[in-house]
Task: structure prediction
Amino acid sequence: MSSKDSPKLPQHLAIIMDGNGRWAARHRLPRAKGHEHGGKTVQRVIDLCLEKGIPWLTLYAFSTENWGRSALEVSALMHMLKKYLRERLPEMQEKQVRMHAIGELHMLPADCREELDRCIRETQHNRALNVVLALSYGSRQEITAAARRLAEQVQAGQLQPADITPELLAQQLYTAGMPDPDLLIRTSGELRLSNYLLWQLSYAEIYVTDVLWPDFDRDDLEAALASYSSRERRFGKRRSKG
Ligand code: IPE
Ligand code: IPE
Ligand code: MG
Result:
């Protein structure tokens, strides 16, 4: 790449925001404080995506499996989610951020759900950045539900099994109509997907940093983007030269 070329940017960045608990332990604070500081990082990363012109950002905020944490931690997270959505809505409007959500949203407490629905509805015409919150999200559950809906269509005689293609299945996922992520970042050093976007990440580039989510800053994002721009994405084909 010559210096006058602008670096290749991901069109869709997906993040596993991990390490809030360890950050809190390191600072001798309760876990909820780690999540609170993690919320500040969310805003920082949204602003950086706007600045850099990355049009899609999907954030793993709460997994299906996270319901298994203590009632205290779950309620602190739900309270923070509601507060975040309520307080940040005017800023999202001002910055033209459109909010989406994926996951088993009916599992969320009613007050969170209402705040989320309001945020999604009121930002639907914003165009600068799409922020997708993965909430009560689990990829295996998502794919299973998609398979079940296709089976129901077959049973009703509306679909032939031979007509089921990857594209048709993708249309049944929560992410229908969204581009697949190009880059996955996981913070806090864990080398696993934790049931996140298993289908959609098939050809994403993966970047793992030891930095804990509350500490993730501009330099860390820029390091991830620099790594992404140097990758050669082959999608199973041969190299472009040689
Ligand atoms: C990520 O931080 C946030 C959520 C899963 C909601 P963790 O709470 O998993 O933090 P660690 O992994 O315990 O450090
Ligand atoms: C993944 O992190 C879920 C979110 C970041 C919301 P976890 O901390 O729940 O994942 P594991 O338990 O380390 O795999
Ligand atoms: Mg974790």
Q: What stands out?
A: Strands lie at 12-16, 56-63, 97-102, 129-137, 183-186, 205-208. DSSP finds seven helices and six strands in the chain. The CA atoms of residues 9 and 229 lie 6 Å apart. The chain has a mean pLDDT of 96.
